[in-house]
Every structure is written in structure tokens, then in C-alpha cells.
Amino acid sequence: MKKIGLIGGITWQSTQLYYQLLNTMVAEELGGQSSCHCIIESVNFAEFSKKQAAGDWDALHKEMTNIALRLQDAGAEIIVICANTMHLSAPIMKKSLTVPVLHIVEVIGKAIQGKDFKKVLLLGTRYTMEMDFFKDILRDQFGIEALVPNKNDRDTVHNIIYNELAKGMIKDESRKKYVDIIKKGEREGAQAVILGCTEIPLLISQADCEIPAFDTTKEHAKAAVEFALG
């Protein structure tokens, strides 16, 4: 089994979900008392959040690269970033690494492509929805168009992530807001929805959605296990 290096804490709420998924999937695949061979470096999300809000992406790229190098030096054979937004750093990180970075957008693009959907709703942090890195990969590599909610709805999605889910707060009223936004996306032509923040699956799942929902956390963890087990 190859060793997985996880960059966590972005937030720790979703990082614990990754850890649970990885170990559960390995146990299901290998049976017995098997569990995942992995190492985690977990960051202080408060520091990352401040730099994100300030637009200090260069500092974040450098920090992410340094973390990945430490994981590589500790024996990690693949790097898994336990967050969608911080895949902004992936292209820069790859330049300094000799092990691969498992890109969450490429993983979810393959999952959607297999279902032949051409237009999907993208939910995530403000950065994921408004910056181009996620949408460009879906379009250029997979021929998938990503729709995003209007500004008010983007603010709602983002604020629930940062002010509630990042703190482990799960509210029924917030779930309803997400479901309403997904229904709007469906009316605008979305054939499916990407839960494009690793905290969103803490709040909603396929059971809450009338259209197919693609869970980036689960698909990312699944791909990591497939790599680890060869």
C-alpha cells in the first residue's frame, strides 16, 4: 500500500471526513483489520482564511508547497489537498515535487464525464465559484460547462461554509437554502450539481437533491485509495 500525504485543516471538519473515508474504503477493499497508510499535516485555518480574504495567494502557494515537500520527505507517495479552493496552489506545488498531486477537479471531471453531463452547477467557496481554476479544467479537459449561482446566492453558500460548516455547525435552515439554490440551478439548465467544497457534504447529500450530486470529498478519497492500492 502506498503512503498518502494529506494537507488538512482547510478545514479540520472535512479533514476528519477524509480520514474516515480513506480508512473505511481501504477496509472494504482489503478486509480484515486493514486501514489506510497515510500522514497528515494540518494547518491553522484562521491563518489561511485571513490570507485568502486578503488575496495573498502567493504566500499560500509557498506555504502549500512547503507542506507538500515535508510530506514528500516523510515518505508520502502522493499528495492529497483536503480542500477544493487550495487546489489553486496545485500547479505551483507540482513544480517542486517528485510525487504527484491528486487534483480534485480532474477527479470530479472524470466522474461527471462518465455520466455524460455537459452542464453542471458548481457550489463552493466564493473563490472556487468566482475564480477560473475549477471551471477552466472542467471546460478544457472534460467539455463540461460549470454554472455558478448569482452573487447573493454565492455569498450565502460561502458564508455558510466559513461561518457554520467550518465550525461544525449543521443547520436545517442552511440545508434548505442550499437546496433552493440547487433548484434554481436546475431551472437554469444544470443537469447535476458539484458539491465543490469539502465541507458541503457535512450539510447536504444526494438525498437532498433532485438532480445528481457529485461529492468532491468522496470522489477524491476514492481516487486516493485507488492510487494507494494500485
Automatic annotation (TrEMBL):
<dbReference type="InterPro" id="IPR001920">
    <property type="entry name" value="Asp/Glu_race"/>
</dbReference>
<dbReference type="InterPro" id="IPR015942">
    <property type="entry name" value="Asp/Glu/hydantoin_racemase"/>
</dbReference>
<protein>
    <submittedName>
        <fullName>Aspartate racemase</fullName>
    </submittedName>
</protein>
<comment type="similarity">
    <text>Belongs to the aspartate/glutamate racemases family.</text>
</comment>
<dbReference type="InterPro" id="IPR033134">
    <property type="entry name" value="Asp/Glu_racemase_AS_2"/>
</dbReference>
<dbReference type="InterPro" id="IPR004380">
    <property type="entry name" value="Asp_race"/>
</dbReference>
<keyword id="KW-0413">Isomerase</keyword>
<dbReference type="Pfam" id="PF01177">
    <property type="entry name" value="Asp_Glu_race"/>
</dbReference>
<dbReference type="InterPro" id="IPR018187">
    <property type="entry name" value="Asp/Glu_racemase_AS_1"/>
</dbReference>
